[in-house]
Design brief:
By secondary structure, this protein is of the alpha/beta class. The protein is 46% helix and 15% strand. The chain folds into two domains: 208 residues, Rossmann fold (3-Layer(aba) Sandwich); 162 residues, Rossmann fold (3-Layer(aba) Sandwich). The chain has a seven-stranded parallel β-sheet with strand order 3-2-1-4-5-6-7, with helices on both faces. Strands 10-9-8-11-12-13 form a six-stranded parallel β-sheet, sandwiched between helices. α2 links the parallel β2 and β3. The longest helix has 22 residues. The relative contact order is 0.11.
Amino acid sequence: MRILFLSQRVPYPPNRGDKITTWKLIERMRRRHEVVVVALSHDEADAQGARDLEAMGIETHAFPINTKVKKLTSLPLLLTSKPMTLGVFGSTELQACVDRLAPSCDLAYAYSSSMAAFLEPHHHFPRVMHFAELDSDKWRQYAERSRWPASWVYGHEHRTLLEYERRIAHAFADNVLCTPLEQDVFESAIPGPHSMVLRNGVDLEYYQPRPELAEERHLVFTGVMDYLPNIDGCTHFVQDVLPLVRAKYPDTRFTIVGSKPTSEVQALGEVEGIEVTGFVDDTRDWIGRACLSVAPLRIARGIQNKVLEALAMGLPVVGTTSATQGVEGRPGRDYLLANTAREQADAICGLFADPAELSAQGTRGREFVERSYDWDKVLEPLDALLERLVPGSR
């Protein structure tokens, strides 16, 4: 069959969470089907990614977007019932492209709710909404952790986006979530429409343990560093957790690895023993140098790729409930669960004090992702979904 795949970012190269997932979905679909990609291009790296996809033989249509400008021009939507999300990620050029391509396709697959808007006018073929997580619920969490007027803005986006998500969920043929927990949130907020779980995975061949590189008392965090949950988590860790660890182990180092660090994140790098890398060519080089990965997120949903990647590389992970709730493992065996600053510090210091357990924890984490998060295994339900919606297509 011919699949029209809509993505909020060009799904290549797979160097951040959403791009990893969208690229793996496309890779899987291409085994049996033709995929046409329509996406927004946020920068020159996205533009190059679109050219790379074309070179691989994947028909790709990418449309430039400046989200900073679009956020400003979308502010009047706060006085309406339309979510700002649809204003920020709206594009007349992209809509025209979808309108032109849709009649020649057998199925449409939208990754992120903002992309589903471009498919609303088209009812002639099955449409799949891949939420991964409910964006409206993310805005609710933002509102709860923010002061006015930001709390009001986030609250407005939560309410208006939820109404839009309900409309889409009922109109589309199926709805995809990334964990059973996300499915529970979806079914509670939007009862009625059919939904299914399609978990994220991790590339076990790419992310291999590198114990020979590990440095004592070296902690690492990975993630795109202009993303509010990552900024909040790292700031909290540096201010509230790291001092407790350094009270026992003064030589503890912390590296924040990820592109687009904000000025707030860059300021953390001015603290002795903390490094903010910015964009790196290969995160494995930095994960491998650490002996332990931290995931101190206080705002999060879905599966955190940072957790899976660290586990795949044999690093113990100390994470909050928010960061690990999408990872269907057993706390204490597969990773360490710690929420308060004191709990996180105690978990880290406990592993520092017991090198044998530090090593064993890393081994158990690697074995866990090998059992549960190999991409080939987790994407098997995708084949059945496509076959169910367009029977007989190969």
